[in-house]
Amino acid sequence: MAKRQKKAPGGANWMDTYGDMVTLLLCFFVLLYSMSSISEEKWKIIVKSFNPDAIESSQIVTTTEPNDNLEDPVDGSHDPAEIQETFDELYRQLVQYVEQNNYQNDIELSKGDDYTFITFRDNVFFDGESYNIRPEGQHILDGICEALAAASASIDEVRVLGHTSQATPGVPNEPVSDRFLASNRATEVLLYIQTKNIMEPRCLVAVSYGQFRAISDVDTREGRARNRRVELLITRKDSDAKSLDQYYKEIKFD
To answer: Is the separation of the CB atoms in 98 and 242 below 8 Å?
Structure first.
């Protein structure tokens, strides 16, 4: 009876080779992970491990130092004197724009150290109870936006304030329609400015005051017309926060 040949030992040697390969791959991925947030010291250690005789690892790429000479692309200049000069120039341009176009009866301008205040009569932008901006109003806003664009780096916020007037002395307006009309008018003006892309949208704010911030009596037609208005409150960067009543006192809105 023929003897059965014994198999040579080591038939599972491929398992040893496979295990070594997996171990090497694991070490490789651990190395990659350790280099994912590399620092100069870590890189030197890695270089030394591969080349113990290396004296200086000169080919190290490190984070470059920030360049203090680069301007902030959003905020522009941070020099207070330059910001103030740019902000003052905004008022001069607005005055020139109003005078050149004979808008003195439709637009009032006031100025403080850190703000410019513009008051538009109600018929400048809107008809009757409408909140759709008239073509003439859009033309006026185009000129205002040009001035705002030139001074945008010095502006902290442009607040659009919508106002109505009590229609009948002693009888308050119906609150829903009153508030919505003032709100819609302020929002329409804000949106028109925003579509010009002259400043960050976060700098634009619309506020509805309705009939509750009257600047004239409601007993006369002229007084009610003066109360119906849209205002732009333009504040300078780094300006102090104030209430609307404080601004009104400074510009003689009693």
So the answer is: no
